[in-house]
């Protein structure tokens, strides 16, 4: 059984930082793309960042470039999202997801497994 467990969310003031973790189990960690998505109330789920666990290549949506950094620890089978200079518009539930291909993608329906999400709230 594939399990994804996100952690690290919380309440932070604008300009602050948080580091999210996505711990995985039940899959061969070095063969997938792992994406971070977020969903704010009343909005569609959007892709934020993605990393290929095979070669470490990364992608970011324009709104987070220069502020967010995705990384992985193959030994721990964990992917991280370091979020700096947070803004109120970053407030959302953040999800990690696994795609059974090494190439990243921005469409949620291209991902096969999802975590339960972690809430990030940025106050102004």
SSE map:
Layout: E1 3-7, E2 10-13, E3 18-25, E4 33-39, E5 46-52, E6 58-60, E7 68-73, E8 78-83, E9 92-99, E10 113-114, E11 118-123
Parallel strand pairs: 2-11
Antiparallel strand pairs: 1-3, 3-8, 4-5, 4-9, 5-6, 7-8, 9-10, 9-11
Structure in a nutshell:
The protein has strands at residues 3-7, 10-13, 18-25, 33-39, 46-52, 58-60, 68-73, 78-83, 92-99, 113-114, 118-123. With 124 residues, it is mainly β.
Q: Order of helices and strands, N to C?
A: EEEEEEEEEEE
**Helix count, DSSP H or I runs of 4 or more residues:** 0
Tell me the span between the first and last alpha carbons.
40 Å
Number of DSSP strand runs: 11
Keyword list:
124 residues; mainly beta; seven-stranded mixed sheet
Structural notes for this entry:
The relative contact order is 0.32. The model has no long low-confidence stretch (mean pLDDT 95). The protein contains no helices and 11 strands. The strands form 2 sheets. Strands 2, 4, 5, 6, 9, 10 and 11 form a 7-stranded mixed β-sheet that branches. Strands 1-3-8-7 form a 4-stranded antiparallel β-sheet, with no helix packed on it. The radius of gyration is 13 Å and the shape is globular. The protein is 0% helix and 50% strand. The chain is mainly beta and 124 residues long. It has strands spanning 3-7, 10-13, 18-25, 33-39, 46-52, 58-60, 68-73, 78-83, 92-99, 113-114, 118-123. Strand 4 (33-39) and strand 5 (46-52) form a beta hairpin. It starts with a strand and ends with a strand.
């Amino acid at each position: 059984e594939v399990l994804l467990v996100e952690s690290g969310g919380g309440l932070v003031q604008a300009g602050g930082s948080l580091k999210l973790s996505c711990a995985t189990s039940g899959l061969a960690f070095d063969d997938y793309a792992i994406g971070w998505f977020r969903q704010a109330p009343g909005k569609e789920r959007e892709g934020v960042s993605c990393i290929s666990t095979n070669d470490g290549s990364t992608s970011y949506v324009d709104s987070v470039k220069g502020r967010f950094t995705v990384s992985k620890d193959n030994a721990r089978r964990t992917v991280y999202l370091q979020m700096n200079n947070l803004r109120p518009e970053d407030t959302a539930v953040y999800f990690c997801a696994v795609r059974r291909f090494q190439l990243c993608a921005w469409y949620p329906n291209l991902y096969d497994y999802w975590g339960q999400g972690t809430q990030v709230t940025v106050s102004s």
